[in-house]
Inverse folding.
């Protein structure tokens, strides 16, 4: 009797937590898309209140007792039950270990940090941000010590975004990636540069939107359960078991930015839609399992599929019919080369698929050193410029285009950056398996059939939600551990064809 009721208690808490988190997500989505500027103070209070409830519930005595009773009685029988215990045991332990005073100090430092960052960035002056970042780093180190870690304090932060991932694993994955991408860049720099000026002409927004929606539809994006609207930053969020929101923005200099960001967020959206299914809906299992696996799905759709030659064999004629003037004299081949142009640049979010990895690796190396204490915040701009020159071959003209460009550190998102590049690695390895199992995949893309690939991904990745850990999921799909060679091989063979050497 008692044992059964432990599950009832856990299921009830899980349900309430999911509803609270979706409600907070809806408030945040509204803040980014609809809210008038002066709504911010009230909105911050509303979200803080919900986050407080979420923290209290996760660290509640009922939660602790239910978890212990289930673990002691070995009552987790199915994969789904074991997954719920895995997720909530970690959340509970972290929540009870971290005193509320530290959470409040962190959120205070982050909100002041973000504010200081906005002005420091505007004034192109790192000194204005320095004391705030020092405080954030200091508190993050306290946090790592408080929740505990093995080998490296950064592991405690990383675990928050990518459960099970470690500094040792990332170093082993990123080291060959870095060397290969640097030598690929040398090769590309020696080639003739690609003309992509046609992407910077004026493309009316309504037609871009229509085209983006057609691709989303072909990807299997279900507009009965999901919707897209405009926002300042492209993102995806889940606000209900059958309600996924994605955003895009059209006021970009290049037509390729909104186009590929729509496909990117569409990939995140498909994952969230598939993850919430008859087995998982309304529970913590009904969502993507980690940041890196999530990013693997968005990048797989955006870059591996969306920027491929086969994809544009079908879509380029359609795109050209919509924009005949802008694309006059442009062939499919020059279009594909244009949207795959590689060039070192200062800003990460505008970086191409190749140099993007170097942007991430340098941020990872710097934040790891900040957390281990081998790099002082005051020396960060110098260290940034040194790595930028070493990896990208360019030195930013000021902190605005360098160390101050990203919001992450000011918002306390430390340990988050590596998940973007890990997503590339996961995506390439999963795609390799898809083509191995379904050899006609590329031909299907050239015929405008995205659905078969979408169904395969749904079955192998999306439907599993958060039931399996990222590593176990990858092993189930590919039979192997994460290995950077799939992505490296993909880059070399793709860019050899694009740059024709
Ligand atoms: Co993404």
């Amino acid at each position: 009797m008692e044992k059964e009721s432990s599950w009832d208690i856990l299921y009830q808490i899980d349900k309430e937590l999911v509803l609270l988190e979706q409600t907070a997500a809806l408030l945040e989505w509204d803040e980014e898309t609809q809210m008038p500027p002066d709504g911010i103070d009230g909105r911050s209070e509303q979200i803080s209140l919900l986050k407080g409830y979420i923290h209290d519930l996760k660290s509640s005595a009922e939660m602790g007792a239910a978890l212990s009773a289930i673990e002691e009685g070995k009552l987790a029988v199915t994969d789904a039950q074991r997954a719920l215990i895995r997720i909530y045991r970690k959340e509970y332990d972290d929540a009870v270990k971290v005193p509320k005073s530290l959470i409040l100090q962190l959120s205070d430092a982050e909100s002041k940090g973000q504010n200081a960052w906005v002005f420091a960035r505007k004034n192109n002056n790192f000194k204005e941000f320095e004391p705030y970042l020092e405080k954030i780093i200091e508190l993050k180190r306290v946090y790592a010590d408080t929740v505990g870690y093995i080998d490296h304090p950064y592991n405690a932060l990383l675990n928050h975004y990518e459960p099970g991932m470690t500094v040792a694993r990332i170093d082993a994955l990123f080291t060959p990636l870095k060397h290969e991408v640097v030598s690929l860049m040398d090769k590309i720099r020696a080639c003739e540069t690609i003309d992509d000026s046609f992407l910077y002409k004026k493309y009316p927004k309504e037609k871009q939107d229509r085209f983006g929606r057609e691709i989303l539809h072909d990807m299997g994006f279900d507009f009965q359960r999901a919707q897209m609207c405009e926002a300042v930053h492209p993102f995806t969020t889940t606000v209900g078991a059958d309600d996924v929101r994605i955003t895009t923005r059209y006021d970009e200099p290049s037509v390729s930015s909104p186009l590929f960001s729509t496909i990117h967020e569409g990939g995140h959206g498909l994952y969230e839609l598939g993850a919430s299914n008859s087995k998982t809906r309304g529970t913590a299992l009904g969502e993507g399992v980690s940041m890196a696996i999530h990013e693997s799905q968005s990048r797989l759709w955006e870059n591996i599929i969306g920027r491929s030659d086969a994809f544009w064999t079908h879509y380029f004629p359609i795109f050209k019919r919509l924009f005949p003037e802008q694309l006059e004299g442009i062939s499919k081949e020059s279009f594909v080369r244009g949207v795959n142009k590689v060039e070192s640049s200062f800003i990460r979010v505008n970086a191409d698929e190749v140099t993007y990895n170097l942007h991430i690796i340098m941020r990872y190396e710097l934040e790891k050193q900040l957390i281990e204490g081998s790099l002082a915040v005051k020396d960060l701009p110098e260290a940034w410029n040194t790595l930028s020159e070493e990896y990208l071959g360019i030195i930013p003209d000021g902190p605005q285009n360098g160390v101050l460009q990203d919001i992450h550190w000011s918002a306390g998102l430390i340990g988050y950056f590596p998940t973007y590049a890990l997503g590339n690695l996961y995506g390439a390895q999963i795609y390799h398996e898809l083509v191995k199992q379904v050899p006609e995949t590329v031909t299907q893309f050239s015929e405008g059939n995205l659905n078969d690939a979408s169904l395969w991904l749904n079955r192998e990745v999306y439907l599993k939600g958060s039931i399996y850990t990222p590593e176990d999921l990858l092993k189930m799909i590919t039979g192997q551990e994460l290995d950077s060679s799939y992505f490296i091989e993909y880059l070399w063979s793709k860019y050899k064809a694009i740059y024709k050497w």
Notes: The beta strands are 226-230, 236-240, 243-248. The mean pLDDT is 95.
